[in-house]
Amino acid sequence: MASDAEASAHALELRRVVKSFGPVVALRSGSLTLDRGSIHALIGENGAGKSTLVKIIAGLYRRDSGEFLLDGESVDFTSTAQSKAAGIAVIYQEPTLFPDLSVVENIFMGRQPTNRIGRIDRRAMRDEAVQIFSRLGVGLDPDRVTDGLSIADQQIIEIAKAISLDARVLIMDEPTAALSGVEVERLFAVARSLRDEGRALLFISHRFDEVFALCDTVTVMRDGSYVETTPIVETSVDELVRQMVGRDVTELFPKLPAEIGETVLEVDGLTRAGVFRDISFTVRAGEIVGLAGLVGAGRSEVARAIFGVDPYESGTVRLLGAALPKGNPRAATARGLALVPEDRRRQGLVLDEGVTQNITLAIRGKLATWGLLWGGAENEAAQIWASRLEVKTAALDAETGTLSGGNQQKVVLGKWLATEPKVLIVDEPTRGIDVGTKAEVHRLLSQLAQEGMAILMISSELPEVLGMADRVLVMREGRLTGEFPRAEASPEAVMYAATADAEAAR
Ligand SMILES: Nc1ncnc2c1ncn2[C@@H]1O[C@H](COP(=O)(O)OP(=O)(O)OP(=O)(O)O)[C@@H](O)[C@H]1O
Ligand SMILES: [Mg+2]
């Protein structure tokens, strides 16, 4: 039985929590109160300290000072096992799966149910996994290894893992960043049912529409400190943005007029069996072509094939009229093509190297004179891009893995922009990036187009595509199903081409 004190206390409470990493103060004064039967949003700019707060709750980090109460009792976790045992489940910003283990094994990692004679009960594990998947409405094969799964699927497994813990407190650090609309809806349905069962939920997201659709209360953080907590019905996007950035962000899609020149990228009849078929399009100098579609439509796969990291069976890719060899990203880079991948942590960054080293990774050859890499040139190049992208880090030689999620994204963008490509393919360029910086990334893309770069922008955010693109291509199930000049690209038309469902288009 819960005592009276326990029943009246908040489910979880943090007061003025401080956390430093050497000279870096990640949290100056983090405060947060979670209540049972409620979904609480935590928002703030990249590097504001949200994930650090979460990791303290999870027992991954220990606080330097401040209070941490669970059901009114002071706690101090020294391991994630302790927080789990106390009923806290966490979905981390970066999936933490073991690639060689199966989906089921990952879900029950470290706490496999056992049967009467103490053996691991594989059937029980599998049954429970299947049950959670059906609750989430996903058709994942529970027996396959997780290696090679899309980030959306990895995220689903993380969610299943958290739900299977049957926790009293569920924390979700940007769980929807890689999910499509349908998957987000299902996750929200599950979150609401958990709330209605009386659990306390914390939801971190850079998407305001989700915060307003799902949450009851919102806490804003800025520069490692608590700013304000407000019931969601008493606030607005503008108000929250002001609290987050301390200024108004008026223009989210600052599209500049650009002169559209010669055809730079020409893709003709590109086909990879079972993945995409007969993909043909062009991108011209100064042009931003948006590639819209649902998650899983094959857009990233097309981009990867063009760049040469994935194979294709037939079709051609031409750069300024000359055919690009298949399966050769090095040649593609040398010829002026760059791809900012979707799964940046795995494909784009060396996490234990410095920010400078990562930004200059793809231009080392160019910076070296007579085979000697001059540190000054390297620092200069890194400096330029780190500041254009507002990368927030204590120092440019800090390990990239210590940067916040959004700031790591910016480093990958910087790495490819530093190659000064003729054609830039960006896959979800602003995923996980906060509102203020998002506007900066858009401004930057627009400027680069104005300077004559040809840009292919894959994005699942319709407003971003419609706001930035001169022309919109749409893919559905591996095929191109629509092409619209800017003036004709309405949300309805694009959604219809993406889903062939008149309902969804409305
Ligand atoms: N292990 C670490 N070592 C050094 N600095 C760190 C470490 N972890 C976090 N930081 C720093 O703490 C600050 C807060 O980071 P945190 O990851 O909490 O931000 P966030 O609010 O989650 O941002 P995002 O929206 O980008 O995910 C950042 O400046 C980051 O560089
Ligand atoms: Mg974070």
UniProtKB/TrEMBL annotation:
Q: Which residue ranges run through the membrane?
A: none
Respond yes or no to whether keyword ATP-binding is given for this record.
Answer: yes
Pfam families cross-referenced by the UniProt entry: ABC_tran (PF00005)
Q: Where in the cell is it found?
A: Cell membrane
Question: For this UniProt entry, what's an example GO CC term?
Answer: plasma membrane
In terms of superkingdom, the source organism counts as: Bacteria
Keywords, in A-Z order: ATP-binding, Cell membrane, Membrane, Nucleotide-binding, Repeat, Sugar transport, Translocase, Transport
Domain ABC transporter stretches: 12-248, 259-502
What is the membrane topology listed in the Swiss-Prot or TrEMBL record? Peripheral membrane protein
Record-linked InterPro entries: AAA+_ATPase, ABC_carbohydrate_import_ATPase, ABC_transporter-like_ATP-bd, ABC_transporter-like_CS, P-loop_NTPase
Q: Which GO terms describe its molecular function?
A: ATP binding; ATP hydrolysis activity
In its keyword annotation, does this UniProt entry include Metal-binding?
A: no
The protein here is known as Monosaccharide ABC transporter ATP-binding protein, CUT2 family
Q: Which organism is it from?
A: Microbacterium pygmaeum
Q: What is the lineage of its organism?
A: Bacteria, Bacillati, Actinomycetota, Actinomycetes, Micrococcales
